[in-house]
Design a protein that fits this description.
By secondary structure, this protein is α/β, with parallel strands linked by helices. It has one domain: Rossmann fold, CATH 3.40.50.300. The protein is built from nine helices and nine strands. The strands form two sheets. It has a six-stranded mixed β-sheet with strand order 5-6-7-3-8-9, sandwiched between helices. Helix 2 packs parallel to helix 5. The chain is globular. The termini are far apart. The model has no long low-confidence stretch (mean pLDDT about 90).
Length: about 230
């Protein structure tokens, strides 16, 4: 079974005005086979934590490993940014597919079908002309087509209507296996409710609570404490 592990992570953003502590003393183990949701108040360090777990940022202290291997091999970890639709570089969806999942076209068609998209119908379209929600689905589908060992998604359901929300949940459910690790940074309690799994609540850059998703959703006081109830 794959395990993504973090030990005592520390990280601060640095600028002209000094340091801003974003993550402090975070330790956790994320095994494959179940979805993991990183949630908590806005500005609590969730996205920064995602960068550290993916290897996109290097911790000031502590370490991250993937079943004992440092995550320097980026090919086995995929990260989809919160506003992934702003990060397309090619002129067409086909160009993005070639850059991200070259040689995996058949797998891409399977993944996009699960997401409710006919890939062949959008290959010639400029990705920048897609709606924000639709483009986010495309970004997720392209990374899923790579079949990485670790998939980290930052707010993947923002801007999705009910149909595509259901398709996203179904595709993620089908993607999960003991040899794959799924981490979702989200405020979407409906997605958490649909997929279940483990919840990791981050507040002030620290792990404030962890446990079963069902237990978190059933505890109104916890939801209110960590600004998860709307």
């Amino acid at each position: 079974m794959m395990v993504l592990a973090a030990w005592n992570l520390e990280f601060a953003w640095r600028g002209r005005d000094g340091e801003i502590k974003a993550v402090s003393g975070f330790s956790a183990e994320f095994p494959g086979g179940v979805p993991h949701f990183i949630c908590g108040p806005s500005g609590s360090g969730k996205t920064t934590l995602g960068y550290l777990l993916s290897g996109l940022a290097v911790p000031d202290a502590g370490s991250v490993s993937l079943t004992g291997v440092l995550p320097g091999q980026r090919d086995n970890i995929a990260y989809v940014f919160q506003f992934a639709e702003d990060l397309f570089f090619e002129d067409t969806v086909a160009g993005e597919l070639k850059q991200i999942a070259s040689g995996r076209e058949e797998r891409a068609h399977e993944v996009f079908a699960q997401l409710g998209i006919h890939l062949s119908e959008i290959l010639a379209q400029p990705p920048h002309c897609l709606s924000a929600g639709y483009a986010r689905l495309v970004a997720v589908g392209l990374q899923m087509a790579r079949d990485p060992q670790v998939l980290i998604l930052d707010e993947p359901t923002i801007g999705l209507d009910w149909r595509f929300h259901q398709s996203m949940a179904a595709a993620l459910r089908n993607w999960i296996s003991p040899s794959r690790i799924l981490l979702v940074i989200t405020h979407d309690l409906d997605l958490m409710r649909e997929l279940g799994g483990q919840a990791w609540v981050v507040s002030g850059g620290q792990l404030a609570w962890s446990g079963d998703v069902a237990a978190l959703l059933a505890d109104v006081s916890l939801l209110e404490k960590f600004a998860l109830r709307f």
